[in-house]
## 1
Amino acid sequence: MEADRGRSEDSFIENLKTICLCKNIKKGTILKAVYGGCYTVDAVNKKLGTGGGDCKGERCGPKIKEMIEEFLKKV
Ligand code: FES
């Protein structure tokens, strides 16, 4: 029980990490878009506005791609 709570807290904190620094978009928000059917970086960018900052997705694009790949491995 205590271990489950720890894992849940870890996941909560992990989801608060900012993935798109330019647009201040958190990991949890991106995961929600991926779970909702955005299976490409372009789809996530269109839905959330990631990739539209000063770096044009150079920093967040690879992280988003990795998150999508991780998700698709599980389904
Ligand atoms: S970090 Fe996402 S557009 Fe720059």
## 2
Amino acid sequence: MRAKRSKKYRKLMHQYELTFGFREPYQVLVDSNFLRAVHNFKMELIPALERTLQGKPKPLLTKCSLAAIMASQPINPRTNNPYRPDHLPPPTILPLRHCSHNADSSPIDEVACLLSLLSPSTDTKKNKEHYILATADPHPAEKKDKAAESSAAGRKRKRDVEDKAEAALRKARDLRRQARSIPGVPIIYVKRSVMVLEPMSDPSDAIREGVEQGKFRVGLTDKATKTERAAAAAGGAAEGEKKKKKDLKKAKAPNPLSMKKPKKRVQEPGVKAGKPKREENEEKPTEKEAEGDGDGEAAPKAKRRRRHHNRRAKPDGDGEGAEAPADVMDD
Ligand SMILES: [Zn+2]
């Protein structure tokens, strides 16, 4: 089960690499709910992200997310600053991503901040920095007010807390929903103690399909096409769609280079001239096609060689394959 999931995630991230140009280390924008969930379920931030992304993560915390985390912390009376919460990892593990949304760089709403980083331009939705969003549903409302429930004030407070929790939940869902509308945003979230990588959203999927069919290239950067080509050339992982692509290439690809190689190995000692061999080739065209081509080249060269016996090996860099028939002819 776990192996199956990691394979699925590896494949998914590979598609983000091919289609949108994602690269390791993957930049992950983590939000306050995500950090709390990771802590509550006793996960370790980096290893958990690494397992989920099947690659090296680089988690980042925006200034606005940090402000949101600190805003809900009690103030330390001695320093007059909020206590650093347990669920906030040190900056060595989770560095700050500086963001500035206004003249005095004061923090804004966390969700607005994250969405502005995921898609900086307002007219075209595009995740050009290749961020991954890591989020979670907010921590359920704490029940420490239970004792006070009997009093009217306590009940009212409880209702306020519930309203707040509901608003927070709606906001978290809204973040995810809006992130899905931006093509090329992988979304990680914590769902009941499991870190999940969402399947590609419909807008992302549409672009992926477009790239695969080579039909439309909306939202594609040059980089992405290059990397796609490079990956295709390198012949990477075994993937259904990729295999299909490769097969198509094989079928129509020209093969002059690959045809010369077998010439060496399939060399037949008894062959004398180009002509009889050609006939042979016509009988078994598929296997000997390579040889046929080689002979076509060898025949005219052999003629020339008859006039310049001594030099026959030197000017001809074509390989031993072309020489051998000439030897036979000389004898
Ligand atoms: Zn911000």
